[in-house]
Design brief:
By secondary structure, this protein is of the alpha/beta class. It folds into 2 domains: 1-40, no CATH class; 49-327, Rossmann fold (3-Layer(aba) Sandwich). The protein contains 9 helices and 10 strands. The chain has a 10-stranded mixed β-sheet, sandwiched between helices. Helix 1 packs antiparallel against helix 2. The radius of gyration is 21 Å and the shape is globular. The model is unreliable at 1-46 (pLDDT under 50).
């Protein structure tokens, strides 16, 4: 929008013959429309991303791979898997205006992989993850997404030098639920997970070893309610989702699994945001909850959200919080 608006402003400051106004107005309108389309279009696979097809479970699955240009390839790097929300897709998750994950990868020195969930749509749109109780097609078909994401990690390791002790996963909404499931069922691969706006949905979660967990959630989330249940803005067809586990129950379950010996203590207090960390967890695992007051069902710190949704809160930056959490693990 800024580019189109700038052209129009500059034209407005010139002495333009009246016969040219109609043509200039049409050009300005086209420029503004083009800028709007560009602003609303998620990142493409040629925007510093490599699109990779991967056979798994009898299907062709895919993911996007981003290796920051300045990454030192002579040293094994951390790997971050980023899982889109239900109804999203990999390219949408790769949009830095909405999530900022490629910027985070450059800043923190991560290799970034953005897998795509299961979808009936061309190009993998409207995809979901089988996080257990949620969601949609992936859940109903019993898709082995834990196995697929293990395969993604292995495939990336065949292309880039990855530090096996620094493999992480994050996700939004249904992707956050999937990150919790990875902590339950693949702690041998993932050192830590960071879930945003998606509580635990995994069946019979019994991790084989302790894994660190960060959870970020808004009090006013109208999709996945903080106190549990599906809110009014969740999928209209409630059979596609579940009666979501509450944030307090999700954290209580992880505290029991990780055998955390002390109640949580505040580690961050800011206007509109606060974080608390559990102490004395098994094998040095870390467990932390960050709560934000506003922003609804969005990625805290994001510059752009879906049309018609409230702006993301700026009281907490999910990416900075996540990077600090990962780097602080012993």
């Amino acid at each position: 929008m800024k580019r189109g608006a700038g052209l129009l402003a500059r034209a407005g400051g010139l002495a333009v013959p009246s016969t040219a106004w109609a043509a200039m107005a049409a050009v300005a309108a086209m420029a503004a429309m083009l800028a709007l389309l560009l602003a609303s279009t998620p990142a493409r696979a040629d925007d510093g991303l490599q699109a990779i097809s991967l056979a798994h479970g009898g299907e062709q699955r895919r993911y996007l791979l981003h290796v920051p240009p300045g990454l030192d390839r002579s040293r094994p790097a951390p790997l971050l898997l980023a899982l889109h929300g239900g109804g999203g897709h990999a390219e949408f998750m790769a949009d830095d205006e909405r999530y900022g994950l490629r910027l985070l990868a450059a800043r923190a020195g991560y290799v970034l992989a953005l897998p795509n969930g299961s979808s009936r749509m061309p190009r993998g749109r409207l995809a979901t993850w089988n996080a257990g109780g949620c969601c949609g097609l992936a859940r109903d078909r019993g898709v082995d997404d834990v196995g697929f994401l293990r395969a993604v990690v292995a495939d990336v390791q065949g292309r880039v030098a990855i530090d096996p002790t620094r493999i992480y996963a994050t996700g939004m909404s249904n992707g956050g639920m999937m990150a919790h499931r990875l902590a339950c069922e693949a702690p041998d691969v993932f050192r830590a997970v960071a879930a945003v706006a998606g509580t635990e949905a995994a069946p019979n979660c019994q991790p084989s070893r302790p894994v660190s967990v960060l959870h970020i959630h808004a009090l006013d989330d109208t999709h996945v309610r903080y106190e549990g249940g599906a809110g009014p803005d969740a999928f209209r067809d409630r059979s596609q989702v579940m009666d979501f586990v509450s944030v307090p129950e999700t954290m209580a379950r992880w505290a029991r699994r990780l055998q955390c010996s002390s109640p949580p203590r505040p580690v961050l207090a800011a206007a509109g945001a606060r974080c608390e960390a559990y102490a004395g967890c098994a094998s040095g695992a870390q467990l932390q909850l960050c709560t934000v007051d506003g922003g609804g069902h969005s990625w805290p710190g994001a510059g752009q959200v879906r049309r018609g949704k409230p702006a993301a809160t700026q009281a907490l930056d999910a990416n900075t919080t996540m990077a600090n959490f990962f780097s602080g693990l012993r």
